Amino acid sequence: MDEDQKFVPDLLERANRVWNNGNFMVFDELYAPDVIHYHPGMGVLEGSQSLAMYIRNLRAQYPDLVITFEETIFDGEKMVCQWRLKGTDMGMHAASAGPPTGKNVDIKGAEVMYFRDGKIVEDHVYYDQYALLQQLGLLEQFGVGGDQ
Amino acid sequence: MSEKITLPYLQELTLRLWNEGDLSVLDELFEPDFVGQEPYQGMINGREGMAGHVSILRTQYPDLNLTIMDDIFDGNNYVTHWRYEGTDEGDFEGRPVPPTGKKVDFQGTSFFHLENGKIVDELRFYDLLQVYQQLGLMPESIA
Fold first, then answer.
1. Count: domains in chain B
2. What DSSP character marks residue A8?
């Protein structure tokens, strides 16, 4: 139980360094090399190198990105975590080949993580892309306003 | 009272509510002033709100099937990793678009807080855009 209690904060600290600080030195402690990462709008990213590239692109798209890890539950085998992402869209993004929107985003999502030897080997990210696109103003073409 | 709240019990009631439309689950397991939050509807208020929410979805998707792929219960918090399948065939009063006939199959996760053996709130996460895309209501790529 002691190990479990350290496991969550240690893991979230590694995630913080990778995602928020772009410090990839602990990346291989966080993710197994064969990690499978399921992500809205992207299907499946296979392997830690694909995931590393995604993280770098995300940090380029939102240079002031801050992800906070919120409510988390862990049963010794799997973990589910709520997170909040805030940032300004300054880059190209997957939703369109269009220019940066310059919009601020503030979204909440969750992630289900499965482990092998303490590293994430399977990872399911869930958030509402529709709400994100609304915040970016990319749904206006469909007659959907930015403030709903 | 809280001894009867176990993981299998929570699973069973969740599946009865969604897959059988057994609204008595709400009296048994949900606080009267339960609050839910989910991407399409937004807020779900009280047992009545949840009853209406489940009923409308089961009308819209007559073959609705919820699968709990994984879950965790620590005594106060219940978190599910679920799969939702159904065919959009059912019409109902106030439906914004007619039934599409399309099948949806998507996953998500829900966080429930319990107090004194009853669910007080649910926070549900899934990609609403994916659902719209599966229904053919939004394009596959937003250009």
1. 1
2. H
Neighbour order of strands in the sheet with A78-88? A43-46, A31-39, A119-127, A104-116, A78-88, A66-74
Q: Is residue B83 part of a domain?
A: yes
CB contact (8 A) between residue B128 and residue A129: yes
Question: What confidence tier does A98 reach under pLDDT thresholds 50, 70, 90?
Answer: confident
List, in sequence order, every residue forming a beta bridge with B79; answer none if it has no partner: B72, B111
Q: CA–CA distance from A137 to each of A98, A105, B27 (Å)? A: 12, 10, 41
Domain extent at residue B118: 2-134
∠ at Cα B123 (B117, B127), nearest 5°?
A: 145
Q: What are the boundaries of each domain within chain A?
A: 2-137
Q: Which residues of A touch B70 (CB under 8 A)?
A: 78, 112
Q: Does B109 touch chain A (CB under 8 A)?
A: yes
Q: Which CATH architecture has domain A2-137?
A: Roll (3.10)
CA distance B28 to B33: 13
In the predicted structure, residue A145 carries a pLDDT above the cut 70: no
Q: How many CB pairs under 8 A join A and B?
A: 74
% of chain A surpassing 90 pLDDT: 82
Nearest to A80 among B72, B141, B142 (CB): B72
Q: Which of A39, A123, A124, A129 to mutate to test the interface with B (most CBs of B within 10 A)?
A: A129
ipTM score for this prediction: 0.95
**Domain-located, residue B122:** yes
CATH code, domain carrying B103: 3.10.450.50
Question: What ranges in chain A are assigned the alpha helix state H?
Answer: 2-15, 21, 27-30, 48-61, 129-136
Retrieve residue B31's tokens. Answer: 């606080």
